Amino acid sequence: MKRLIIAASIENDVHVAGVYKFLRLAESEGFDIQFLGPATPIDKLIEIIRLKKPDIVGISYRLTPDSLKSILDVLKSRIKEYNLNEIRWIFGGTEPNCKIAKESGIFEEVFDGTSGDEFTISYLRGQKVASNEVEYGQDIIERIERNYPYPVIRHHFGLPSYKDTLEGVKKIAEEKVLDVISIAPDQNTQEHFFDKKYNTALDGAGGVPIRSEEEFRRLYIESRRGNYPLLRCYSGTNDVFKMAKMLKDTINNAWAAIPLCWYNVLDGRGPRQVEESIRENQKLMKWHADRNIPVEVNEAHHWGLRDAHDAIYVAASYLAAYNAKKMGVKNYIAQFMFNVPPATSPKMDLAKMLASIELVESLQDDNFRVFRQARAGLASMPQDLFEAKGQLASSAYLSMAIKPHIYHVVGFCEAHHAATPDDIIESVKIVKAVIKNTLSGMFDFTQDLDVLKRKEELINDAKVILNGIRELNTLCSDPLSDPHTLSLAIKLGILDAPHLKGNKSASGVLQTKVINGACYAFDYENNRVITEEERVFSIIQNYQKLIIVA
């Protein structure tokens, strides 16, 4: 039998929007609801309660606090007179009125509108409202399961000054807007934390300079307030196992973000060769899997950010998840970066993500769970800060179509300057408003015919790429996880990107073009799209000729 909630605005208060919204949320959580409307007299309310015997009664009053106090005195006496203490009473109103409601001793919970729908839903689900570190949860999967369908909110943060970053972590935690603070270290930290071969001229370049384990611990300590956000940090590009252990021990790294084919000579972020780094990255995935730490493999968007076409993005998404599963990862965080390249249209962007999701989630089983993480592409953010806020909101709205478990907010200011705590707080509040609106009901863009058609094209094209990689090494039992085969696929150009031109470890011959919002491999000399069948077949054929000659 469903539980019943009765709610009304009382006495001379005719404001009902908050009451009505609360009841809609309650209905979506499985309650029967009865809305008594505006300006309901206390005695009328009591009469209906005695007749209907609800489980919960919600009242709202948004007028002057002085008037409320006398109204609640009457209500309290009626509750006692008619023995209605067993009913769960809740109150909604302005902050001053909520203070008076708390002082009355009538209500088990009050809602002043500042805590958001997540707070309300937690109450309706019977979840204890978090007030300390244990209750908020210090595990990303626990936070996801507590909040969904509201995504866990993440933002990266790292200023050129360690002191400013430390103070910023404290401020962000106290504001209770972020579930996850991703510490963004400078390149010196990622590459030289252990060998100490810092280039001091580059201190603070790209993030916060962190020079000791104690400095990592202090960041964690300062975050133990507010909503006790999880902390995580980008992986190292050198001494990757030492870095992984240190992050686990100092900040309780919420999950690891590890590339498959990057952080090496391909992107200039480390001295490792491609094959060596793939092998080491796989071992790093396994290191985290053995400790039951979730893993995100940053792969597909590295290709997309270098203007690889959509089919490579989709194939790389699958390869990333496939290798994570192969290394024993149980909880996999799949990142889907929208707006890459920036000229991609919303329809074609969504089709690319849906194709990636279908392939990645085909790997799911009892031992491999996929959690979707959406974000905007940094390059899509205009330098004009007002336009950037519009882009932030627009990208978040589209991203919600994939029902993400985590939303990685990219600060609206990132194309202009590194995000300060105030920038982050403002950006997150913009995104939270978008999320709240989408979850109240939005169009199902995933069923658009153009989106569906492009999605199927990309799934087929990605399979051509994956089969092409397999054909490079038919003697290998599992080419898709073989470091030599994957590095060969990059060297030959099955996996390629225009920005890799001139890189000795890659092919770099691929050219791409955005046409009608979708990105394709393109032959500029003959002004035509190159199909994946043609492109991959040509590469395989040329490679087989080289083998025969050799």
Automatic annotation (TrEMBL):
<dbReference type="InterPro" id="IPR016176">
    <property type="entry name" value="Cbl-dep_enz_cat"/>
</dbReference>
<dbReference type="Pfam" id="PF02310">
    <property type="entry name" value="B12-binding"/>
</dbReference>
<dbReference type="GO" id="GO:0016853">
    <property type="term" value="F:isomerase activity"/>
</dbReference>
<keyword id="KW-0413">Isomerase</keyword>
<keyword id="KW-0170">Cobalt</keyword>
<keyword id="KW-0846">Cobalamin</keyword>
<dbReference type="InterPro" id="IPR036724">
    <property type="entry name" value="Cobalamin-bd_sf"/>
</dbReference>
<dbReference type="GO" id="GO:0046872">
    <property type="term" value="F:metal ion binding"/>
</dbReference>
<dbReference type="InterPro" id="IPR006158">
    <property type="entry name" value="Cobalamin-bd"/>
</dbReference>
<dbReference type="GO" id="GO:0031419">
    <property type="term" value="F:cobalamin binding"/>
</dbReference>
<feature type="domain" description="B12-binding">
    <location>
        <begin position="2"/>
        <end position="135"/>
    </location>
</feature>
<protein>
    <submittedName>
        <fullName>Methionine synthase</fullName>
    </submittedName>
</protein>
